Amino acid sequence: xxxxxxxxxxxxxxxxxxxxxxxxxxxxxxxxxxxxxxxxxxxxxxxxxxxxxxxxxxxxxxxxxxxxxxxxxxxxxxxxxxxxxxxxxxxxxxxxxxxxxxxxxxxxxxxxxxxxxxxxxxxxxxxxxxxxxxxxx
Length: 137
Known about the structure:
The protein is mostly helical. It has five helices and no strands. The chain has one domain. The longest helix has 18 residues, at 3-20.
């Protein structure tokens, strides 16, 4: 196989792997941004009004500074943003293929977050809209 053709095939394979690694495909959740958020769909509000209160409350949460299940600590805004967006748990502009959304919309008790106490539709809406709008800080 000649150099340019081999290079093109390798490039195509790398692109396919990169696209596949986003998590998009059949496992993506179907979500709508046509909903009424509980609060402004900004990271600061998502963190302060849902993540920190539902997932990282001191002494009782799975993702607080004391534990951080699955390496996810949501108690501090900057660290939470890095753990979600920079670690790939949130895909800016693509809420349906973001792990965070898959977990908050799931009805499977082994997947659903937070466990045992699902977020309200309005809370989920704010998170979905924040991600759809680019998941900026």
